[in-house]
Design a protein that fits this description.
- The chain is 29% helix and 23% strand.
- With 304 residues, it is of the alpha+beta class.
- The chain folds into 2 domains: 10-163, no CATH class; 178-301, no CATH class.
- Strand 2 and strand 3 (32-38) form a beta hairpin.
- Helix 3 (108-125) crosses helix 4 (143-159).
- The longest helix has 18 residues, at 108-125.
- It is elongated, with a radius of gyration of 22 Å.
- The relative contact order is 0.11.
């Protein structure tokens, strides 16, 4: 499941005048309300009426190795006691996001459903590791309640990327830009979505740029053996090991194969994983005419 792609508006209220402090975020014409704050402010914000309501929440903070974020998904009836418990017992998190319904219309089963769905989405996306020790199953809901919670979930998923959280995003389908249509009637040098390939060391991969990063397509290949230079970057080694452990990269005879579309933070991060070496993705990825990503982007920047 992915968030709705229809345009929408968010209202962000900076409650204490500090843009990095407490923020109340609402989606226009929707019931979802988010309470966003850094961990250090919990003693001051725990009296907020939103935290006295039943809701679902996220805790985010750096991973122990310092490479990327760690995520915890929880629910509370109400939220406040759960956050107070995590404040005392969980060290990793540095910020929290709580979601409640305007008017306080959610019950325990509702937020258990949301928690289970969010955990399942994060596990499927495999973008951020989870601190959760258990993976709960969805509770039974009436047909009407289930429908309402799916709409509420869709609103949450639409708000989270704006709040800097991408852990639940599934890779969007690749568009077919006019640049790939012969004789399209106009010269399009480059645009996001243009299919690029990376072929070397006996493997071949295909990918494209998107708003989520550089996406390597399902079925692409990656080398099995990495270079000594690659091993000098512990973060990259750990990332590769995670992709293998999570089933994003699966063994396929003499190489690895991508079992799903996967978004990397940059073209270089993508080609590093494909080739098992330190690369410049802007020169490694090429279009169907052999033009590098760097050449395409430089040519595009000169267009009027």
């Amino acid at each position: 499941m992915t968030a709705n792609t229809q345009p929408f508006s968010l209202r962000i209220f900076v409650a204490d005048g500090d843009p990095d402090g407490l923020r109340i975020v609402e989606r226009f014409n929707a019931s979802a309300r988010a309470v966003v704050f850094p961990r250090a402010l919990l003693p001051q914000v725990k009296a907020r009426p939103e935290l006295q309501q039943t809701g679902v929440y996220l805790l985010l903070g750096p991973r122990p190795d310092g490479e990327g974020e760690l995520l915890y998904v929880g629910e509370g009836d109400p939220i406040r006691p759960r956050l107070e418990s995590h404040y005392a017992q969980k060290d990793f998190w540095t910020r929290a996001i709580g979601f409640v319904a305007v008017g306080g219309l959610m019950n325990k089963a509702h937020v258990q459903f949301l928690e289970a769905r969010l955990i399942a989405l994060a596990r499927a996306a495999k973008r951020v590791p989870l601190d959760n020790g258990n993976y709960p199953s969805e509770p039974s809901l009436s047909e009407a309640d289930r429908s309402d919670m799916l709409v509420f979930l869709d609103h949450i998923l639409g708000m989270l990327p704006v709040l800097g959280v991408h852990a639940f995003e599934q890779v969007a389908p690749r568009p077919v830009p006019p640049a790939e249509v012969p004789d399209a009637g106009r010269e399009v040098i480059y645009e996001a979505g243009t299919l690029m390939t990376c072929s070397a060391k006996g493997v071949s991969a295909a990918g494209f740029e998107s708003s989520q990063g550089f996406v390597v397509q399902k079925g692409s290949q990656a080398v099995q053996v990495v270079t000594p230079s690659f091993q000098t970057f512990p973060g990259s080694v750990r990332r590769r090991d995670e992709l293998i452990a999570n089933g994003v990269l699966v063994p396929d005879e003499s190489c690895y194969r991508f079992a799903q579309d996967f978004a990397f933070t940059s073209p270089s991060a993508a080609s590093d994983m494909v080739l098992g070496s330190v690369t410049n993705g802007r020169t490694v990825w090429k279009d169907s005419r052999g033009r590098t990503l760097k050449e395409l982007q430089e040519a595009e920047s000169k267009q009027g």
